[in-house]
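Data availability (excerpt). The following record was deposited with the supplementary files.
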Amino acid sequence: MLMLVLRGSSLAVAVGTVIPIITGAMADPAFVIPDILLALLLVVGALLPDKGARILLTGANAYALGIFTVAAATQVVTVGAPSVMLVLAVVASALNMVLIALIARARKVS
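Predicted structure:
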């Protein structure tokens, strides 16, 4: 069950990452390539079998948390505050990392 939630939330982060690129709403073009790579990793990870998915989604969500945190910090410096969507992306990636820890813990217990 937790794995299904992780797959869904990772796909949601991937879609939310690509939408600003497609619509031209991305504030900083320096993040286009990392965001496309991130979305690709999240989608592929969500589609892999469980063991591969756990491994790839761990790395991809950690990468997402790093990218979104740097982007949010950049917006704080340049604009004064990060966008709401970027804050939501940071929170979603952080919650995915917590979910990954819960999945790993559940596997050790059972």
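Summary of structural features: The radius of gyration is 14 Å.
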